Amino acid sequence: MENFLAPWRPQLLSILRIMSGLMLTAHGTAKYLAYPEHPFNKVVMASPSGYAGLLELILGPLLVIGLFTRPVAFILSGFCAVAYFGWHAMPRGFHPLVNGGELAALYSFVFIYICAAGPGPWSVDATARNKS
Fold it and tell me: Per the confidence metrics, is the pTM higher than 0.85?
């Protein structure tokens, strides 16, 4: 049972990257495109949340398609770590369950893993590398 999904590791890495990118992009679209309807729709653009929305809206789709995956994932990992410590841990305590920072912390670790592991086979990066 321990090797049940082992043959699918590369494809599952691509799926993790794609889904993480899509979910992150949704934060940016909520802030800048007002979709989906959410309290983020009222973000002040010249604020930390507004700047975060730009990163989400630009880097999220790059992650989805797997373009510049490693540097994008590295930047996003740091971005999410800053979000966790700056907006969750500092004002409300360190424990993620208490401070509401579970998503930021998890994203940070997922993105640093993607930075280390690469984009997976279903990506622009892999396609470009195979054509070289």
Answer: yes
Q: CA-to-CA distance for 14 and 2, rounded, in angstroms?
A: 20
Residues 6+ apart with CB under 8 A from 88: 96, 99, 100, 101, 104, 105
Task: Compute the chain's Rg from CA coordinates.
Answer: 16
Q: What totals of helices (H) and strands (E) does the chain contain, helices first? A: 7, 0
The amino acid at 26: A
- Cβ neighbours of residue 129 under 8 Å, at least 6 residues apart? none
**Under a CB-based contact definition with an 8 Å cutoff, are residues 14 and 119 in contact?**
yes
Residues 6+ apart with CB under 8 A from 34: 41
**Residues 94-111: pLDDT tens digits?**
999 999 999 999 999 999
